[in-house]
Amino acid sequence: MRCPYCRENHDKVIDSRGADDGRVIRRRRHCQACGKRFTTYEHVEENNRLWVIKKDGTRVPYDRQKLLGGLQKACYKRPVSAKAVLAIVEEVEDDIFRRHEREVEAVEIGRETADRLKQLDQVAYVRFASVYKQFRDLDDLLDEVRDVLGSSQPDAPDQGKLF
Q1: Closest among 70, 65, 156, 163 to 116, alpha carbons compared
Q2: H helices then E strands: how many in the chain?
Q3: Do both 30 and 98 map to the same domain?
Q4: Is residue 163 part of a domain?
Q5: Fewer CB in 10 Å around end: N or C, the chain?
């Protein structure tokens, strides 16, 4: 492993432990060239065993970083922890890898993600949904916001609606 500080390839593992319920191994390393310490994470590579069918019919390998990036953009400047975002990614991955052997539709990944995000943060959900559902115009966006507001306050009296 190359040291992130000096770029030398001479390090020693000084500590290893499991993380993320045993799905990841965290390794603490000591660079023998410059003496600095750094951490690496090791996880099982899925070897592109799952392909995502996009809306246009094309197939691409599943990419965890795309899902994580979409969630991070949706949660930007929202009170959502990185741990909560990673938990959503883990839950969605566990679900799709358990239910699908070779292929999954992108809309299903989006729906699974949106459902979990909706429970976590409504603003982040609307941001995510605006990309996932590809709103055609402002009316589509307003309909979604009304739906979110209605589902979060099922028995609330009609007091000066926002929209």
Answers
A1: 70
A2: 5, 6
A3: no
A4: no
A5: C
In angstroms, how far is CA 137 from the centroid of its own chain? 26
Q: Give the count of beta carbons closer than 10 Å to the beta carbon of residue 129.
A: 23
- Bridge partners (DSSP) of residue 68 are none
Whether pTM > 0.70 for this model: the answer is no
Q: Domain total for the chain?
A: 2
Alpha carbons 87 and 33: distance in angstroms, whole number: 37
40, 21, 16, 18: which is closest to 87 by C-alpha? 21
Residue 79: other Cβ atoms inside 10 A: 10
Sheet arrangement for strand 59-61: 59-61, 51-53, 103-105
Q: Which domain holds residue 147?
A: 51-152
Give the span between the Cα atoms of 111 and 114, in whole angstroms.
Answer: 5
Judge if 55 and 132 occupy the same domain.
yes
d(CA 79, CA 124): 10
Q: Which two tokens stand for residue 134?
A: 């590809």
Mean pLDDT by 10 residues, the chain (163 residues): 93 89 88 95 71 92 91 91 92 90 90 89 83 65 70 50 41
